[in-house]
Amino acid sequence: MGRKRHPLEDSDVDISVSPPKRSAAGLPSLSETLRHAVAYMGPSRAWKTLTAVNQKDGFDCMSCAWPDPPERKAAEFCENGAKAIGWEAEPLKIPRDFWADNSLSSLEHRSEYWLGQQGRLVEPVHKAAGSDHYVPISWDDAFEVVAGELNKLDNPDQATFYTSGRTSNEAAFLYQLFVRAFGTNNLPDCSNMCHESTGVAMGETIGVGKSAVTYTDFAAADLIIIMGQNPGTCHPRMLTALEEAKQAGAEIVAVNPLPEAGLINFRNPQRPSGLIGKGTDLADQFLQIRIAGDMALLQALSKRVLDAERASPGTVLDRTFIEEHCQGFVGFAAHLATLNEHDVLAATGLTSAEIDELAGRYLRAEKVIIAWAMGLTQHKKAVPTIKEIINLLLLRGNIGKPGAGPCPIRGHSNVQGDRTMGIWEKMPPRFLDALRREFGFDPPRHAGVDAVDSIRGMREERIKVLVALGGNLVHAMSDTGVAEAAVRRTRLSVQVSTKLNRSHVVVGEQALILPTLGRTEIDRQGSVEQFVTVEDTVCAVHRSSGPLEPIAPEVLSEVAIISNIAQAVLGIKVPVDWAGLGSDYDAIRDHISHVVPGFEDFNNRIREKDGFVLPHGPRDSRTFPTATGKAGFSVNDLETIAIPRGRLLLQTLRSHDQFNTTIYSLNDRYRGIKKGRMVLFVNPQDLAELGYADGEYVDVHSEADDGVDRVLPQLRLVSYPTARGCAAAYYPEANVLVPLDSTADESNTPASKSVIIRLEPAAAPVYGTAAGQRN
């Protein structure tokens, strides 16, 4: 059977805290996986989905973009993947009377956790202007509502079209085609809030913003440096690759403000030694860096490499690689000669000895991988920080050879594929030219808006319609109060979703929820079963088809929804067979093969068991598609964040029982938190200096240049081994503290990992009905 509907809110009143774990996975992970899967799906449904996930003839897990190994195991999933599957594939449905029983005003006070627990969406619903309730609506009427609002805009740029990274290649391509045929490039997506900084930095330096390593490169590496990433929670299957690398002789270094259990010890639940043994110690060195100190560390490492070359000319740098494939080395080396060690130590909180140790590891290694995630990308200086990763790798030729390269770890399952398919507000002219040749209309050429600028546009009433293909924009975005107020100023907000989230209750004058199939479900168009495709974090493209019958016959696929919206909005204004594309995904793939480089003969190649890997010049042949045809060393001025006395630097993070804004439970097992999320992790020495103690409650205020007092009230202080001067809190709750205009230079990504905060005593907690929301 699956579980019953969650009737009540859990609150933080019973929160408990225990010491953080020093090992990930093992029996606790296996037990939690089975408990969750059976509770949500029942044993039969759980077996059917978990035996098909990430298999060559199955469906792609929606919980992350980690690549599949060449040889699949029978259980090719992790704990959090199983939770994501259970959350989507549960048989619980939202009944029709739910909409009559629950007004928007009442739902607004429910937590993200509660909303997600109510079951699957199974019919379109509409909130009319002036109403406080959604009511069921037919699909045809829903499409007419969208068409009516879009077609009465003064110009197409008054609408913005958001995309979640769970969207398939086929849906993404059709979506961007519709949006550009409508006349705008307003195509924000979740990349704008996560790895946009990576794309900018790598695009400028090596010409490709994607990982330059494959799955098998990890086991071939001598050294793997993991920066600003928590694979034990965010990409658990990566731990298996790291274990394989360790067994093959690689050294692993973790660089992070918090110790993460998965990088301390991994108990592989697929091995007997992982279940009953002591597991595998992964990190050979842990550098507990201060928040935003990564650029200083990387520059210090590069300076040590240059110093070693000066001490022993011709033995350290890969001079041949630098001379043949790079530019800008002389200016880069001259700039680092002026680097001040005192500034480095102040910025990083590390000792010279710790940096020397890592530099020694780098100098001894012939093949080095540097992997990173949100801990590096969500800072004001995120782009130059990632450029410094490239600088360090270029010095010893660690790009374009087995076992070496930059490896951004993307979190959403097809966020990389969505960008490849054209979900970007600034697609290059060659892509737009290919669309024109293929479809016979001229796409708009001016740049569109990203996610942050979409919120700004709604706030200023320049954008009047929001269409979201998946995701939870209003809660994923920084500056929650500003984001919510902005969305409420729209004339229409449309959400294409599987389950309820905060973006369904913070809406425009009119609102629509359009229910869609999940990744786990069979997608039939007519009587023909379709499949979709995804691209993982190492550029491998493979097919995905779910094993379960659809949750309800009325639910449409994302492709079908887009096709119908396009027909309703555009009719015959552009020469595109929207109905034909909506009913035959092979037809979409044929068009993709003509438009997107690397997808030639798409339909035949994707039917091979392993799919195919997209070409990558820097990785495959040391060819760099930059303006000069060479990889570029860059010069980046070191800037540190001045933290006033009595203040802390905050990073937002996710709990173990969480995927993006989706909350699976109120626990964070690895950090020792149970039955609550409203906590602030602070170093015990900082707590003492600030005059607080573990267990006290505080109001957290962020301090920004705009002078606005943003506050997250009544967080329980947790004495935790964070880096000195640093604190951490869960998102999306802590997004309220991040100013909308506090973004990374060049990429415009919210700077959610470097927020200056002050603590003020709070009154005794007063709990409302919603977890994490108090009166």
The tally of strands reads 33
Total domains, how many? 3
| Main sheet attributes: strand count, strand direction, barrel closure | 6 strands, mixed
Percent range of helical residues: 25-40%
Choose one word for the global shape: globular
Radius of gyration: 25 Å
Query: Which range does the strand content fall in?
Result: 15-25%
What does this structure look like?
The chain has 32 helices and 33 strands. The chain has 775 residues and is of the alpha/beta class. It has three domains: 111-191 and 415-522 and 553-583, Rossmann fold; 196-408, Dimethylsulfoxide Reductase, domain 2, CATH 3.40.228.10; 648-774, Beta Barrel (Barwin-like endoglucanases). The longest helix has 18 residues, at 294-311.
Output the keywords.
6-stranded mixed β-sheet; Dimethylsulfoxide Reductase, domain 2; single chain; 775 residues; disordered C terminus; 3 domains; Barwin-like endoglucanases; 35% helix; Rossmann fold; 33 strands; alpha/beta
